[in-house]
Amino acid sequence: MSNRVERRRTRAGRGDGAAARAAIERALAAGDVPRAAALAEAALAAGASDPMFLNLAAWRREEAGDYRGAHELLRRALALAPGDVLIAGSIGAVLRKEGRHDEALAVLDRVVAAAPQHAAAWLERGYTLDSLKREEEAGESYRRALAIDPRLAPAHGRLADAAARRGRAEEARDQAARALALDPHEPAACAALATVAIEAREGAAAEALLRPLVDRVRGDDRTRTLTLLGDSLDRQDRTAAAFDCYGAAQANFRQVYRDALEPGPGRPSHRTFVERIAAQLDVPRAPAAAGDVPGAAATHVFLLGYPRSGTTLVENVLASAAGVTALEERDTLGAADDALIGNDGAMSDLAALDPALRERLSADYWRRVAAMGAATTGTFVDMNPLNGTRLPIIAALFPRARVLIMRRDPRDVVLSCYRINFTPSPAAWAFSDLEETARHYDALMSLTERARATLPLAFHEVRYDQLVTDFAPTVRAMADVIGLPWTDDFERFDRTAQRRGVRTASATQVRRGLFDGRGQWRRYAEQLAPVLPILRPWVERFGFAD
Fold first, then answer.
1. What is the pTM of this model?
2. From the CB of residue 285, how many other CB atoms can be counted at a distance below 10 Å?
3. 3-class secondary structure, 303
4. Homologous superfamily (CATH) for 274-541
5. Between 20 and 30 A from 389 (CA), which of 119, 272, 320, 334?
6. CA-to-CA distance for 428 and 294, rounded, in angstroms?
């Protein structure tokens, strides 16, 4: 709590609210931030105008999940106290919670440049980098925060959590011990220890760590705690109780991100977005002209399918070969999205795309890829399971690209998506409701199949069930399509995953080697019963019917 109190102490205005300010200062000195914030709200309602009052009132809104309201108050505070790094740091925090991660990072970069000893800003910057899946940079930011203030338990906790997700159990335990010595209930540290226990199949031990935390945490920490608690119960084969925990986690996610993500006027659901794109793919298209673009890879591969379908596994298999570079779920097509597709899925006429625009967008893509650290001298694999929505753009900009489509039993896929604590996004909102997950899956599969029928791209299907039961022939066929010779390094993909780090929810399975995750849905057949009719056509079409 101490760093949160500190970031709310800002320069007081002069001449108004002196009595209120004194009372607020006394509350802060006593560590009673909620009372200080309530007093600040009352003073503002009475006509006071003070950056400290606005900052504290913003904290109250933030705690209630009203991030937009908090942001508005903080902007008013900054207008009264330009250059106040504590207010600016708070703005970075609410921008992150609004899901505006790039904006948050830009603000926080300016804060730490102006005030390099501002430990709370380094901590918040770490949170933001974590949200952007830039884990190495996040870890460095946490370490910078700890170099300034070694008593920042959340920084130790986040370092512990990152180590646990990478399979570094001893490092996770060490950092968690440091965090818990400072705060016995630090959420990320408890999550780290629980993750280590779950991976070791010690479900009861993980449950014991998590149960005391459930009623103590809010926001994202509560979502994560409930998700892990579900996993700990799953490890004990208590599937009904586990499913209840997953449902509670998703309900909490929806409560936290309702303002930022709930579909409504001007904000179509992700399923509506997918359906609109599919509706525009009725007519087969001729291949676009494909000129040489500076910086382009010799061989270009898009790997997609659906979250939890095995894309991370295949990405690491391919990245194990010499001359292959892969990026895991990065926003490589952002500029093309902005230029060619609307928020509602309405697309430009890609068949009549201006050649100069096509060249500019293609060049921008390769610049982004290079800026993200990927080499493009050989084979480049762009992995994003939801890139089925970008297939029309891919066909327009990169007609020579190969497209690998992962196929896994739809029942396992939908269950797994519902069980996962995803980074907030419109798609994650869809996954927070079981029926909507199934309908979203149906929509994206419909789009993908229509794209295969209408777009002039080289498609190849990779089946998860064949990959885990007949690895070498399945990988050989995939490598032949790409133009890669067989190498025994493909079989050492678990070492590749350890070396590269895996940022998706599949990290644990990929580190283990060839994990056979087929048939998980059977243990939850009763809970999945309401959505099985939605999935049945795809189960049968893809050949997964019993």
1. 0.86
2. 16
3. strand
4. P-loop containing nucleotide triphosphate hydrolases (3.40.50.300)
5. 320
6. 35
